């Protein structure tokens, strides 16, 4: 019963991770955030692998899924530090999220709740094919929206890691128990073969 509950809970966590990752992927595409787009894609693949391992009783897939979650927590921790400008990280100095290929920022910068965008005309600061804007009146700045999104990913990843380790351990214990009791592979079981040493005896009938 506990194994079944663990599998169901892990599948539910993976489903929440998929929904959160797909939602995040959409907004990263809108903001041309190439580094998060790549990371989200890898995360979606890893979560699908985790679901497959849970349904098909594959402990190795769950181990790979758990290892990825450790990397995923590290990446989202970096996202949090980046948008909060912890240490030497600065949003104004470089454009890490776009691989330094464009000047785009987070989509939430202009489309956050309550934000009022005002274009600055005749600005000499803007490079070619770009425009300068001012954003005001936001109920929540885009940095904190990105931080909350990354924090949600960390929370789901921690729950997923714990349940992936638990379910993987249960699967391994079941495999060891099967081998110990008498699995076909461990004992080299072969079905009985029909003997070919048959003796034919005459049959007498009363005349």
TrEMBL record:
Stretches assigned to coiled coil: none
Biological process (GO), any one: regulation of sodium ion transport
Keywords tagged on the record: Cell membrane, Glycoprotein, Membrane, Transmembrane, Transmembrane helix
Membrane topology: Multi-pass membrane protein
Subcellular location: Cell membrane
Membrane spanning residue stretches: 34-55, 62-86, 147-166
Entry annotated with the keyword Cell division: no
Keyword Nucleotide-binding included in the entry's annotation: no
GO CC annotation: plasma membrane
Highest rank taxon of the organism: Eukaryota
Chief location of this protein within or outside the cell: membrane
InterPro entries: Na/K-Atpase_Interacting (IPR008516)
Quaternary structure note: Interacts with atp1b1 C-terminus.
Family to which this protein belongs: Belongs to the NKAIN family.
Name the UniProt record assigns to this protein: Sodium/potassium-transporting ATPase subunit beta-1-interacting protein
